[in-house]
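$ ./design --mode recover --in tokens.txt
reading tokens...
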């Protein structure tokens, strides 16, 4: 009797489940999601100088909302402001008007986004497969998947994909027109590339299979949703399609393939000689990067198989007609993936069109498959009038194993949650630059310089984290600045450094203590990207040719802390040439 009760509890449908049971499964899902968010918050507030890896790129310039006079004439700040979606920047602007620091808001925002995502995900699952246990399993898997990557916790524009895209799907399946159009508009304001996937879904839903042939729908409501949705997509796409960037057109075609920044050793590791990696697993070019990262996600791939055997998996008969949205999402995403490769970087990164949507599909499918298999196992055990003790043990063992894997898999991971918060160990350098005038410019090849705009609110000439090679005008300027800095820092003629200071108006240099060793050249990302420059400099260092900077380190340094040396440019400019 106990195993029968367990069977009924795990496979009860929404129709014959009490409100308490529904609230229980949804509440349990929410508890896990909030718990994972609290773990991320713990990392976020573990140190005064902690910042999420990607958040710093989008948030640093928004500190201008509170202090308009910081980062004046800053190329990097101006560029990232220009490429930030209008909805995202205005949200932070409104928050800043309330006196909330953008960096603080970026740490708190992911908690709200995760809660809202779960609030849409669970009922979305119920629309497709009205079994609360399956909804809980899918929701828990989603919460775990979200915490295994930094997409949502980054508080960047892509963080809004989850809640707004899922809201669109939920209202689409519910046939709620105005909320659906509102969700489309929000996607356009916060992450415009996803409008293309939504447009594909709206077109595909007009077609139905009849006698193994595609035919247009006869339902007028389908046309109402699709036409109004497509018009909304067009309205919010046009400003981006017609906008002109002062940083030039997007990198495209042959130029993209020859760009060091998109090479395997570049800032955005896009191209690769490994075709499997390039087409399937690469974060920027692959079809399914991270989609099957959680091992239980693989179970979702078996959904098409079990749907073909309803006699063996009777619970699959409860899968509603709304499951058709899953292949629509998949097809629209894969088509956009192909077009993004064909029109490289005119439609942004190809992987962005599939890495989230395909994961959504397999997670929903996994919840359905797990519960359907559980039901089949219980049904198998019921084939005899009385349970044998052996079958009871097998059934309970199988159920317990699935439960253990589901609940405790994150405990097996070395890093969970994977929030990628950077906790800096050089607070003195940030405090030093905070005391300097707001219009200073700092030049450095060190990766440690990347957080100066966030924590010191001062401009840097270049930064590895900010060297996104997507627009020709911006990439050309960053490349020129970086190569000029390399020549100035490693030249044996101090005049090159002095000319560099005059050209860019640099006030300080920041050097790693090991900057003038061949080992440093081998691991610094700027030199890894530009191998030819690295070879020349490394060879000179090995031959004993000393850069002129070495002779002025002690004389011109104003701060040394934790492996970093701050050099005053004014001192370098006034040093007599030998």
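writing sequence...
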């Amino acid at each position: 009797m106990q195993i029968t009760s367990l069977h009924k509890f795990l496979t009860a449908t929404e129709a014959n489940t009490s409100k308490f049971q529904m609230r229980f499964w949804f509440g349990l899902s929410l508890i896990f999601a909030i718990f994972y968010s609290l773990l991320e918050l713990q990392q976020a507030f573990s140190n005064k100088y902690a910042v999420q890896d990607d958040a710093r790129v989008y948030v640093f310039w928004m500190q201008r909302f509170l202090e308009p006079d910081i980062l004046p004439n800053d190329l990097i700040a101006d560029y990232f402001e220009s490429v930030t979606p209008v909805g995202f920047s205005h949200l932070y602007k409104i928050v800043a008007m309330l006196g909330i620091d953008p960096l603080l808001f970026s740490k708190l925002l992911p908690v709200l986004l995760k809660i809202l995502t779960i609030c849409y995900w669970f009922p979305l699952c119920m629309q497709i497969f009205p079994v609360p246990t399956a909804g809980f399993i899918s929701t828990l898997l989603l919460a775990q998947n979200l915490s295994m990557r930094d997409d949502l916790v980054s508080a960047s524009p892509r963080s809004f994909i989850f809640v707004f895209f899922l809201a669109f799907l939920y209202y689409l399946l519910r046939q709620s027109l105005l909320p659906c159009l509102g969700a489309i508009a929000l996607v356009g304001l916060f992450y415009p590339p996803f409008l293309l996937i939504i447009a594909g879904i709206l077109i595909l839903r007009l077609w139905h299979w009849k006698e193994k042939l595609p035919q247009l729908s006869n339902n007028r409501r389908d046309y109402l949703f699709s036409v109004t949705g497509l018009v909304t997509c067009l309205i919010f796409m046009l400003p981006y399609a017609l906008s002109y960037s002062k940083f030039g057109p997007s990198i495209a075609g042959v130029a993209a393939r020859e760009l060091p920044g998109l090479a395997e050793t570049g800032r955005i590791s896009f191209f690769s000689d490994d075709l499997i990696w390039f087409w399937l697993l690469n974060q920027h070019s692959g079809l399914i990067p991270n989609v099957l990262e959680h091992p239980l996600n693989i179970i979702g791939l078996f959904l098409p198989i079990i749907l073909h055997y309803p006699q063996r998996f009777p619970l699959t008969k409860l899968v509603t007609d709304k499951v058709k949205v899953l292949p629509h999402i998949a097809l629209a995403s894969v088509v956009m993936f192909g077009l993004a490769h064909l029109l490289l970087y005119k439609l942004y990164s190809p992987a962005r069109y599939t890495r989230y949507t395909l994961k959504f599909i397999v997670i929903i499918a996994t919840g359905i498959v797990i519960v359907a298999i559980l039901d089949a196992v219980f049904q198998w055990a019921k084939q005899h009038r009385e349970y044998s003790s052996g079958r009871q043990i097998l059934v309970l063992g199988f159920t317990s194993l699935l439960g253990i894997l589901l609940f405790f898999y994150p405990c097996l991971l070395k890093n969970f949650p994977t929030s990628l918060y950077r906790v800096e160990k050089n607070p003195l350098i940030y405090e030093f630059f905070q005391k300097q005038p707001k219009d200073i410019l700092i030049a450095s090849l060190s990766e440690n310089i990347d957080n100066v705009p966030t924590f010191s609110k001062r401009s840097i000439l270049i930064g590895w984290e900010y060297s996104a090679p997507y627009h020709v005008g911006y990439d050309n300027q960053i490349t020129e600045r970086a190569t000029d800095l390399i020549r100035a820092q490693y030249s044996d003629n101090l005049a090159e450094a002095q000319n560099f200071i005059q050209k860019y108006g640099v006030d300080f240099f920041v050097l790693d203590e090991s900057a003038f060793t061949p080992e440093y050249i081998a691991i610094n990302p700027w030199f890894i990207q530009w191998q030819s420059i690295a070879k020349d400099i490394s060879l000179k260092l090995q031959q004993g040719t000393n850069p002129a900077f070495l002779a002025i380190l002690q004389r011109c340094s104003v701060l040394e802390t934790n492996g970093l040396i701050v050099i005053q440019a004014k001192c370098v400019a006034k040093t007599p040439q030998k």
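exit 0
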